[in-house]
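Notes continue from the previous slide.

Worked example: a multi-chain complex. Inputs as given:
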Amino acid sequence: DAGITQSPRYKITETGRQVTLMCHQTWSHSYMFWYRQDLGHGLRLIYYSAAADITDKGEVPDGYVVSRSKTENFPLTLESATRSQTSVYFCASRRGLAGGQETQYFGPGTRLLVL
Amino acid sequence: KNEVEQSPQNLTAQEGEFITINCSYSVGISALHWLQQHPGGGIVSLFMLSSGKKKHGRLIATINIQEKHSSLHITASHPRDSAVYICAVSPYSGGGADGLTFGKGTHLIIQP
């Protein structure tokens, strides 16, 4: 039972390059989320998706693009990486029951360094 | 936007002590979550609650909806409890928004 996985786990890139972080879950959860974690700010929501082909912005979406063509995958793309996007990125999912009172399950995180 | 405040930010205690971490939020929610993160590690959900009290082993979580306040208690603390504890809230469903809003975390160290 793989659960929710992220790849790569570590990534170093340069400013201006495009980077895609992958997230895959095996539970067929409807909702998926991308968060970033930074010292001094804690965790913040970047984008979320309620179902395949349905995505919406979170608190800090600028500079990021998401897609969700399949329920199990939710890739996050940095179109032109900047140093301010150096962070730890967590993907999460939840089943999608009505009312939203559900546990969220987090992936192991991707540490991204933009030089 | 919901503001989530945690206290204390840092806490060092001796093994066996009773630990309390507090969380307050500014806007009504559908649920409150307590999460645990070990250094360099992933994030694990400890509790999700919308009312009352929940207990799991030595951990107890309470919430007071009227006061917009929650507490996480650890009884008979142990060095393996050393971690960052994060409070997070879920918005009301149907409000056009989703995802968790997080406090900045409480860094707990339990010394043997």
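Summary box: The longest strand of chain A covers residues 42-51. DSSP finds no helices and eleven strands in chain A.
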